[in-house]
Amino acid sequence: MKRNLILSVIVGACFTIIGVQTVKPASPKAPSAKEVFFLNRFKQIDNLMLQAVASEALPSAVCYVSYNGKPIYYKAFGYADREIGTSLKKNAIFRNASQTKLVTTVALMALYEKGLFKLEDPIKKFLPEFSHPMVYVSGSVAENNMVTRPAYGDITIRQLLSMTSGIAYDVYDQDLNPINYLEQLTTQEVVKRIAKLPLKHDPGEGFTDGFSLDVAGRLAEVVSGQRLDSLIRKEVLSPLGMKDTYFYLPLKKVNRLVPIYQKPDSDLPATNSTDSLIRFYPLAQNQLYFGGGAGLSGTIEDYAKLCEMIMNFGKIGKKPFLSWKTIEQMCTDQIFGVEGDYLFGLGLHIATTEDFARTMRNPGSLSWEGDFGTNYMIDPQNKLVVLLYTNKANWNMNQDVWGDLLRSVYMSLK
Questions:
Q1: Which pTM does this prediction carry?
Q2: Residue 153 burial (CB < 10 Å; 0-12/13-18/19+)?
Q3: 3-17+32-94+242-410 has which CATH code?
Q4: pLDDT by residue (tens digit) across 86-138?
Q5: What are phi and psi of 231, to 5 degrees?
Q6: Has domain 104-229 been given CATH number 3.30.450.50?
Q7: Exposure b/e, 302-332, CB count within 10 A at least 16 = b
Q8: How far is CA 250 from CA 246, 282, 283, 285, 361, in A?
Q9: Structural domain boundaries of the chain?
């Protein structure tokens, strides 16, 4: 199905479009949760999560569902530490991984509202190391035959935030670790490494999950004159009350960080991850690198506050945080001219009718996931936020739990 056709049939989009004008969503008093949901059906979520942990489809889980900004389901399942049998608590701290991308995007959009840049600005305006981007053609460094060519255009800020820059996670066999969270490197030094990598495609000509938001984090530092951790604390975490979210955990909160478990095969026992980067990054002290694409750790309740702000069109309760027009722009497809049915805004995946058919997710709802098993879904039309946090790496048995959870929540609607 062509992209323009998909957009024309999205019936649950975040905003009502009339011609080229956008009508601000009305804010009538929302009905109560009892009027909207069969609340007794949430017992099915209990059964789903208990079975998922017991069958080792998940090592453990915290599940959070809110309606109109208020939690209506919030429970923890399994063990924080499987070896000693410590029960998982709802305030456990998880590695957000790629869910960091939305936090970085919101921080940049706060700067955007201050007029500090335009989305069409080339990033070389702020990061000169990206003045001559190259595109991968063939070969590899290891075989001394890698071929690249000049890109057909500059990377823009819009392309960073929509992940159409061509900046990938693939380093094409180069003996180069572009991001090592345990080295004593600054964000500037890491991004200069990333700038040396060839692009997967020309800017704007494809969607590629990669280091785009890590670069965006450095760009935010240059634009604001602040270090990224300070900027995100000032512009996002403190205003939203995300008091348990950090790049590097303070010592008094280290004991709440859950370990990452690995289970590459269903016949193998679950074990703690042996990857030192996975295990120790959030615990490191005096680090200078702040990964805007994957570096934060925090609680599910903290991240729910971010999701609820977007669900509420830029407000924290009744207090304005970002303009509703800024949120609208973030929730509108930004990957212009890219072939395929995938829709992505600024830091947010946008559900299509195919997503609805497969998972019951409302078309127009918003989501992304973290590599260690964190998921969120924002549905502004139904004033609904759903999050599932778990703690796994190389764990190949949980693909269906998130979809089953979403179906359980949607089938609870009256």
A1: 0.91
A2: middle
A3: 3.40.710.10
A4: 899 999 999 999 999 999 999 999 999 999 999 999 999 999 999 999 999 99
A5: -60, -50
A6: no
A7: bbbbbbbbbbbbbbbeeeebbebebbbbbbb
A8: 8, 9, 8, 8, 37
A9: 3-17+32-94+242-410, 104-229
